[in-house]
Fold this sequence. Notes:
It contains 4 helices and 9 strands. The protein is an alpha+beta fold. It has one domain (about 15-165): Immunoglobulins (Immunoglobulin-like).
Amino acid sequence: MKSLLITFSALLAMSGTAFGDDITITFSPATESYPPGADTATCEATGVAPCVVFAGTITDNDTDGTADNPNLIYLTGITLSAYSEYFTVDNTFSSDVPGAFEGDSDDYVTINTYSGPIMGLDIAPDTPVGTYTAEAVFEGAGGDGDPDYNGFTEDVSFTVDVLAPEPATGGLLLAGLFVALAASRRLRRPRTC
Length: 193
């Protein structure tokens, strides 16, 4: 019974590392701040402003030398491990990241490594000021660790710092409210003849 437990544990440990060996996903930097976040045009192109965009590198490490059977890796989506009430994954991943990777050769697809925008997060307007650390859970299939394409996940840690509005922005907001209040008082004042 003890040997069966040891064998099962060894197999489980090997299966857990198999996917991590096939593909590497890193955010660089792994922390983004809002404000400022990404520019409004970028946010509106892939989601809803305001947003932060995490760039980095995805590398297919599957280089076992079998060009005839490359075991392509397909990345299909992202979910968040926490804070989905404050952050929504936008379309940056599906718009920018190639869907298939091949580490063995360039016979079938030409992507072994991708560098650039990987994940965008739209920030809800009621998100409290604070530091949010979670994992982006990438879903995929293929590679040596998943030759039957049953699916796997790869977790990548990230942090979003939601900061208080800048004092200059708050001052401008108060100045605008003061001007609006003064204008409304001027409209209400009775005129003397």
